[in-house]
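re: ur question from the group chat, yeah i did fold both. here u go
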Amino acid sequence: MKTINEKLVDIQGRLKAPKNQRNNFGNYNYRSCEDILEAVKPILLEHKLTVNLTDETIQLGDLYFIQAIAVISDGEKSISVKAQAGININKKGMDIAQSFGASSSYARKYALNGLFLIDDTKDADATNKHDTPVTPIESGKAWLQKDSVQFNNARKAMQEGFSLTDIRKKYKVSKEVAKLLEL
């Protein structure tokens, strides 16, 4: 009979969780927590293992974050991995429940990534240059101009939950344009 560690090694070697989601603003594909769970369930069933995901809210000073814990178990022994995601309770376009939910999903995804050794270093979150040449200074990004198509797209993206930090991954943003985006 295989140990839980041997079963986990088998899952880590076999699991394929394709990036079936699309971010049109950033022009990249990604995988969600749900995509990982859908891909791993048949292998868990084969090994008679369960995965449980739990969250806890933690406060450090004025900062809040979600700590997700992914636990794989054979009923007797278990292995767990933790991951954290910050919560922006003032995120434009989101109420407080949506802010907590988004942070929970993000933390759970990365806890599962750690448990199942899903490497996101090639993921767009880590490497996407948004079709901009990379140079040592400011990554060769263009300035976001107010009253441009790009500005309107960035404003719409922020209304849908993107942050100014997300916009700055693609463009240089002046203080004036940042204020306009956040209106």
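okk and heres the other one u asked abt
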Amino acid sequence: MQADAIQRVSNAIQGVLSNALTAVNVSGGVFIGPLDDPNASGAALVMFLFRIAPTPDLRSSDHVTVSNDPVPVPVTYRNSLPVDLYYLIAAGDQTLGGEAESLYWIGLALQTLQAQAELTGSVVDGETVRLTLDPISNEEMGRVWTLFPTENYRTSVIYVASPVWIDPAAALSAAPLVKTYRTAPPPIN
């Protein structure tokens, strides 16, 4: 993916969660941004990207993808940056339905992201991005919530999207494909 990789993954997760909320007639949708943003008011779920970290096992790897050509060929990117995206997913405005209703929204988010634990296809530029529930401690969750000193704590979970590749603007040039194979040297004139 290119420079828009983080945006594409965030929008894809938002789409998956929004579809689940719509399927059970929950209004409000999913807001991407900080919990204390005035535009988050009225959202059933709030999704906040609070950390971006390099993916340790892939740091020295080339990123190999397939081109969109009619006859797909491998495309190699050197110096790509594989990252893990950490999202806080919290119950939205609890005035919409109260604490019990917000617990349902979090349960629905967990159920949905467990069922669709991989993002694939054109929404993520043909990549595969895995979504994993991050079992952080109460102390770590408290640190995340200190980012919002004016907000009351709400039931929330952390999800990690990995790997998200941020490729250089240009791919490595590949050698031309061999079109014919000779078994004998060319004739001498």
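fwiw on the second one: The chain has one domain: 5-166. The mean pLDDT is 87. idk if thats what u expected
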